């Protein structure tokens, strides 16, 4: 079994990865970081690369994922696996990876969005929570980080 943590390259990725690693350690299971490149972002980068006459698909996914995993790695001390995926529905790709890996839990990040501090998760996190067939742990970002 494994714990899957979704990382997006934001500053909060390190927090999500750190909490997921702690959770995986306590469960005595593996940690797997996943990053999904949104198809719209990929298409923009493809068009940019094509205008410079470069080959693209793997390079773009790998470059974007590497940046996401690098930001997450700041929060992880031990070993972990990674998976970079290209997809139109980020939440569904995260959940599909969790199903394929037999994940016991999925860990995602959330954001505090209102000035009065009401915690709301992002649309990807919300979709993961609502559509998951396994427990989801939401790690809220640090309100003092901004």
Q: What are the low-pLDDT stretches, counting only 5+ consecutive residues below 50?
A: none
Give me the strand/helix succession: EHEHHEHEEHE
Could you estimate the helical fraction of the residues in percent? Answer: 40-55%
Any idea of the CATH topology?
A: Rossmann fold
> Largest beta sheet, briefly?
6 strands, mixed
SSE layout and pairings?
Layout: E1 2-6, H1 12-27, E2 30-38, H2 39-51, H3 57-73, E3 81-87, H4 90-101, E4 103-112, E5 119-120, H5 123-131, E6 136-140
Parallel strand pairs: 1-2, 1-4, 2-3, 4-6
Antiparallel strand pairs: 4-5
Helix pairs in contact: 1-3, 4-5
Please explain how this structure is put together.
This protein has one domain: 3-Layer(aba) Sandwich (Rossmann fold), CATH 3.40.50.620. It has 146 residues and is an alpha/beta fold. Helix 1 (12-27) links the parallel strand 1 and strand 2 (30-38). The model has no long low-confidence stretch (mean pLDDT 84). It is globular, with a radius of gyration of 15 Å. The chain has helices at residues 12-27, 39-51, 57-73, 90-101, 123-131, and strands at residues 2-6, 30-38, 81-87, 103-112, 119-120, 136-140. The protein is built from five helices and six strands. Strands 1, 2, 3, 4, 5 and 6 form a six-stranded mixed β-sheet that branches.
């Amino acid at each position: 079994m494994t714990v899957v943590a979704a990382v997006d390259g934001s500053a909060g990725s390190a927090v999500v990865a750190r909490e997921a690693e702690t959770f995986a350690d306590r469960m005595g299971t593996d940690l797997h970081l996943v990053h999904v490149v949104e198809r719209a972002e990929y298409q923009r980068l493809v068009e940019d690369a094509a205008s410079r006459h470069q080959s693209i698909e793997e390079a773009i996914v790998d470059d974007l994922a590497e940046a996401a995993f690098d930001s997450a790695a700041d929060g992880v001390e031990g070993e972990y696996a990674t998976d970079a995926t290209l997809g139109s529905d980020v939440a569904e790709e995260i959940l599909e990876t969790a199903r394929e890996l037999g994940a016991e839990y999925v860990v995602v990040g959330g954001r505090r969005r209102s000035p009065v501090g009401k915690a709301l998760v992002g649309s990807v996190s919300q979709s993961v929570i609502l559509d998951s067939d396994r427990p989801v742990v939401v790690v809220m970002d640090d309100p003092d980080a901004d």
